[in-house]
Please model this.
Amino acid sequence: MRSRPKLAPLPRLFAALVTLFAVLLLSAPGALALAPATSSPSPSTSSPEAYPNTINGVLRNNGQPVPGVTIRATGEGFSGETVTSASGAWTIGVPVQGTYQVELIESTLPQGVALAPGAQNPRTVTFANTSNAGAIFPLGEGIKVQGANFGEQLIERLVAGLSFGLLLALAAVGLSLIFGTTGLTNFAHGEMVTLGAVLMFFLAGLGLPAWLAAVLAVIGGGVSGYVQDAGLWRPLRRRGTGLVPMMIVSIGLALAARYTIQLFFGGGTQQLPGAQGPQITLGPVSIAQTTLLSLVISAVVIGLLGFLLLRTRLGKATRAVADNPALASASGIDVDRVIRIVWTVGGLLAALGGILWAYYRPGVSFNMGQQVLLLMFAGVTLGGLGTVFGALVGSVIVGILVEISTLWLEADLKFVGALLIMIIVLLFRPQGILGRKERVG
Amino acid sequence: MDFLNILSGALGEIISPTTAAYALGALGLAVHFGYTGLLNFGQAGFMAMGAYGLAISTLTFNAPFWVGVLVGLVLSVLFAFLLGIPTLRLRADYLAIVTIAAAEIIRYVVTTNRLTDITGSAGGLNGFTNGFYALNPFPEGRYNLLFVTLSYRDLWVRVAAWALVALCCVLVWLLMRSPWGRVLKGIREDENAVRSLGKNVYSYKMQSLVIGGMFGALAGILFTLPRSSVQPANYGTELTFFLWTCLLLGGAATVLGPVLGAMMFWVVLSLTQGLLFGAIEAGYITFITTTQAGQLRFIMVGVALMLLMIFRPQGVLGNKKEMAFT
Model:
């Protein structure tokens, strides 16, 4: 491909780069105007805006919010307190991620409300590589506090891990398809994940209902994928740029996009509407409503994607291009069109994955995509680079592994297990679970 | 706005020990990528090996400074073997993914609260550089260089750091003009051709990974010396990407490219920070805060990396014919 260098796309490429950033910057005025209005609901004395890390929770008694209760966090040479808001929510900003003692001041509880018997107070809260940590104080009589035995915990972790794995799979399908069709290892994919969540946050801040904000954010993700391909990657392919330079370009794009998002979004963590939803109890298992919903949404979307790939002409064309672009082109498939669609669909799915990831963590932050990028790589490598269904299987395994490992490992080490497994798999079966040997040599 | 102050601050970055650390880290990447074609995206992990090797052996085991440096180097060699054994037989991008993952594993492990007694978790470690400053040959006092005035401690860090960088540059230069270096370049250009000449490509790649990784560990030690502290947050993927920017700025397949790249990187960062902050404080720029100005600089780094890769992949010093890309 090197033998036909073209100089014509150069100015166009530069213009396209500028356009790309213009698109990224479009949300700017809304961002600056709305960030304060939608931030923390609690009138806290230790302002969360002042610090990048927060400890938060919601105080409820029989499903009713409990306002006006003082909660104090001490640790790492810091002490701060806050009062729960009308919705029962509270947030304490802390300077560093570490271990804190969080205490509910029982004398400030309203008449007739008490901590559940056996509830820990004060309790220890440890940050797990995210910029926020949760602390739940169970209130009222008859609430099970420490009842979960190992089996129940295992089932809970399995369900949570499945939900996490499926959302990883959603985000990783684009990564795998892009690799399969163009050979590019896209380090900027994490920022496409962040984009979905950040767009939804801003759109919801404009007053749109959550579902509409989510749909528009996912469409926005698709547009970003299309614009990226049309403005940057296609011109680069036309120039015959090698895969390694393209990979480094994607790193540059990732850095630029990440800090552009931080420029407008700030360094803190914000919550999407409905993030602190109720817990649902199914038999012995208690699981957050958002986790369950996320599981259903990802399963449906993945099912749809599988149908499209296996049963439609476009899906067959995509798989053909992923298998052998030259041969696909020779059999009359418009390879460039397929790649553009792959980028668009990859952007859509990454944005959706980002929204679900924001509910799962919970919280939106500028580096949330970067945190899962390596897990997506792990999933894709585990399943077999470039194969779609391998990415699904690998991501689900990674998701479940991450959650199960918290039964034994510290929460702040939970990503280590998945990354180690990836390295070990490469040692024994480098092509991954569903991959074919010829891809690796 | 005090232009003179901003300018002298930026020029001071040329000889700062952090620039030396970046130069050395990027030189390691030049051995990996520029000369051998290995995609190491985990240089931050090698740097963490050096820094924590020194810090932990000094603080936990009361080892002298030289032993600490040696421990850091040994750790980085082990790390290189750990990464190389599964990946060096595979296609280039596997090494990229595995190195970046391994560097993150290191960062997670030194951040975890379970090991707070040894690694200091998120807060990191400090107070382990006394052994280094005890070696200071300069008498106490302040020293006036061309555009900066330095304390005797600062002078010693700078002299030691740049002496080390110079030594490593000479070493790389000698290595790369030796027959051994020519084999490395051959591997970069065409692995199969070299293999058909009867060379053990895997072994050469491993040697390159180890040598570049040791430069990384030394860079990590240099990085901690002026601060006398090590924090896990400094060893994230961004550090690796900044080193790549330095490397590609100067020229990947050159000896002095990484050094020049690191100097340019820090001078430009310091200059833009000074100008932006000055303009904001003087009220010339009102639409962004100083925090946002800091982020603006890193957006610039990202865009610069993209433009460099697209329009001048050989860097400032590089030769277009020797580009290290296939």
Remarks:
- Chain A touches chain B through 57 residues (CB under 8 Å).
